[in-house]
Amino acid sequence: KDRPGHLSYILIKQDLKMGMMMAVFREKAEYLIVQVVMESRQVAWIHSEDKIEGALDLHEIREVRPGKNSKDFERCKDSKDHQDKTCFTIFYGSQFVLNTLSLSGEFVEDAEKWLIGLELLRQEALAAPTPAIIESWLRKQMYSIDQTKKNSISMKDLKFLLPQISFKIPHARYLKDKFFLSLQFTVAFLLTCLSVFQELWANDLNQVRELMTTFINDMMGKTSDPEFTVSEFLSFLFSKENSIWDKKFSDLHSLDMNNPLSHYWINSSHNTYLTGDQLQSKSSSEAYVRCLRMGCRCIELDCWDGPKGEPIILHGNTRTSKVKFVDVVKAINDHAFVASEYPVILSIEEHCCIEQQERMATIFKEVFKDRLLTQPVDPMIDQLPSPAQLKGKIIIKVGEQWTERKMLHAGMAFCKRFYLACFQQWNRHYCVISDDKLYYAEEYDEGTENVKLHFSEPWFHGRLSEGRRTAERLLQEYCSEFGETDGTFLVRESEISPGNLVISLWQEGRMQHYQIFSGSRDGCPFYFITENLCFLSVYELIQHYRQNADLYGNPSLTDAVPCPNPHLTKNWFHSTLTRDEAEHILMKIPHDGAFLIRQTKTRQSFAITFRADGSVKHFHIQKKGLMFVLDCSAEFDNLVDLVKYYRKNPLYHTTRLRYPVTEELVIRLDSVRLDEMEWWREWAVVSSTYIHWKILLQVTEDNPLGPLCKGVFDLSKCDVTLTAGKNGLPQVFTLHVKEDESVLSYDLGTTSEDITEWFSLAWDAMYREKTKQSKASHVKSQKKENDKKHVVAKEMSDLAVYCQPRRKDIYNFERYDYKEIRSFVENKAPLSDSKVRDFLRYNRKALSRIYPKGQRVDSSNYDPLPLWICGCHMVALNFQTADKFMQVNNALFSLNGGTGYVLQPEMMRSDGFNPKMQQDKKVQYTVTIRVRHASYHPFSLLPDNGLNPVWAGRPVPVEFLVCEPELTFVRFVVNEEDMFSDPNFLAQATFPFKGIRSGYRSVPLKNGYSEDIELASLLVYIDVQLGGVEEEMNSSSSQLWRRTESAATSSTKQHENLGTCNSLSTLWRFLSVLQQQILLLKIGDKSAMLFCLCLFNDYLHLCLHLLM
User: Fold this and answer.
1) Residue-level pLDDT at 426
2) What is the CA radius of gyration of the chain?
3) How far is CA 9 from the centre of its chain?
4) pLDDT value, residue 603
5) Rounded to whole angstroms, what are the CA distances from 802 to 343, 372, 384, 779, 816?
6) Which of 82, 315, 351, 454 is an active site residue?
7) Active-site residue, selected from the candidate residues 59, 82, 263, 270
8) Cβ 971 vs Cβ 963: under 8 Å
9) Residue 447: which region, alpha, beta or left (left: phi > 0; alpha: psi -120 to 50)?
10) Is 315 a catalytic residue?
11) Does 428 score more than 90 pLDDT?
């Protein structure tokens, strides 16, 4: 491939910068200009020269894939008109599920040019020095409001831009004062200030010059004595060039790849096919691609019988979607060795019949070909081969994995519904029947129904007071103000035909009204204006006529007349309720997510009242101009958008807005006392907070639904009946629960096909108790029956060369074979004092795999560190969940070139190693960390300044004791305090302790998936001491700190005295002192350099004090 600097690469860059017309594949193909904006390092797609429709950052590109290899091409019918070789897809983003931009050029050469150019530009963007990144970031912000690229913006534009980067303007003169002062920040900061970092090369003038020349991009050598301005020096402080992480620990050490596999930690994924939770998320072959490219080396395939003899992959007995087995195998083959050339292990959980297992073996052989390991590397050696010996190989681990999660009754597959009498509606819950108990989770959110999508649209006005007359007045007023555009419209309820809607529109200087009719077919509603063209929702109907000119031959619908106060038509809005009245009503609805919005006494603001965590909460909504601001943070165009947003996203902790409290419900509840509410008792099952009956058991941690579980029924103590035609469902089954002398009834329903199976399971549980049938014998007989059903085909077992699962006596370590592998659930690994030494000895010879317990249905992760310390090789985590333990996993496997294989420390491979005794044996390290400043990231404990927060005053040091550096991690987490005073995750940085550098260092921040966030960093001071003597491996700057601490204290006092004088002359005098000190510096005078840094730090604090 071409490399940057070659003539061909220069020509490719020029072509990409010029751009070209391409087909962009969405619902249909659109032809747009696609180009690379070199100044801001972005790929943009443009309708015309004046309108950029969208853009993506080069550094966020994860893959550029040739051909029609994305779902975009499958969804778009127009893609058939384009050759495969002219198409390609850009995968980009910062979430687990990536965004896609699927394109097609006119010629094959165009696609090849973009494939080569984008990959090289992506690498160039990732390797760019910090000043270049800063420049492109600033240009990107400017271009976002100056799309004409005139390289200038007005003060008005600037006021709009700053809030977008988390910087709020405190008062009108702030910008003028700020820019007047910032013009003076150009004092030269000499080369010798860099010596404060105490790098070993800091005394080598040539090396320092080279660093500075590269950093300030003076590659032409304009000066032999480069200088840093204040701005450049600050940039260096926060840059990746001054990172806390020593990059040499990220390098691949080839000599360390020659040990047996059992000496390595192996990056491993659990249920790799899932993109979300374990119950109802989507399965995708792209999840395998994402994990493999993140460095995963052990992936899991849950294989089940599929239609037409073709196996499928899904999470059995759940509502997760399925994916074709052959598609997954092809995806693995294409991406297995992109991030690492070392072996990939496929952990097969087999549920297929013999015939489909044979088909699986055939697919493996046909797709993987020579990559598939079918024979031992060296049969004469009694140990596992090394990663180096297995380069480019795919290893099969196959066998039925029996766990308590898989022993659940078949009822786990379905989502049942409880009837809520208070809201007169069915609500979906995920339910499981296991061990004669019915467990249920919180409501299953299916999103907004199609038939109601139009409710939140600005063009929907609901019921107008005077119907047609009001609609015509609104159209007339809108056209008078914005122009008489044909097709200007609104949608309203019909006053003549209740239940139907009407389109009122402006056409050729007069008003026209078209009725939207509705009907039903097979229980599904549909909507139409003409009978030959029907739609599943009003929203789809309007969208169609906005794009097509076939509304009785008239032009398409154009401008929408917005509803002036859309909240006035909503059933959750109450104009007269007081705070006390609202709270009283919500107290009678003991269900999280019930809500209403009310107008406050001032009539100029609003409040939202809702239930969360078992109590009633109120939050203020302020009207600022045309915007609605929720507790001084989130802004919305109207209250309808606010409700729409928090129906999909948590408003408080995990609580979303679920149940609107209507006027009808308020009237109904107004006369009811809390102690007289029988209906409350009927539906309280949906919230475990309000269940006090003996029949509803306390939720335990090891239940099948884990933290999602909200309550439990003991079916053995219930009477179960099946009823036809109740509460709108054709069949329901009812649990009759005895409480004291009364009987409470709970209706449960599901689809007609499934209701019989659910009823049968519940009946069996009740019947076994009444007949005193032994549950133990029932489970035993069931297990024997299942054992007969699940047999691994010979064709599959022959592929298991090394990873041969052992199911029996897995806790017996007296005898074992190096080819076997043992799997343990996270909470049943043999880590007890009596077993851990035997387990360690086993792990030095053979392989072990750990996986999450079945209760982690939310795909949360467990702590891998205790298992790594005991030598476990494949500690499988949910890669789709960006939590603390996944970030620690990413930190570990950032070592050794990101190959997915990390050699365990030598001490762990010795017989004397005992993980429970390390603290007594090892000399402790003392680590001191001070966080000084944060840069270019929207977080802060200071109000209205998230761009560059400074922690005022000298930071309080935090000390840690480190017992074993090889098994220790350092993690920085940045949270933002929300309106509820709760911390919200913003960024993190996690490092293996052995690779951190001392001194003043930049901590480059990453997102939850451990991918770099552009220009986000912390400035910290870190000091490492060993056994009372300072660690000299990377730095000894703490000695300098102590030598100059008194001088720094004196400087701070000067700062405090000067800070009381609010005058610029004081600031300049202080700056003059700093400048004089800098000019006296000599290379190697490290104490003076550190003093200068302290002085400069105080200078910055003084600037901040004067500016605020």
Assistant:
1) 67
2) 33
3) 35
4) 66
5) 12, 12, 8, 33, 13
6) 315
7) 270
8) no
9) left
10) yes
11) no
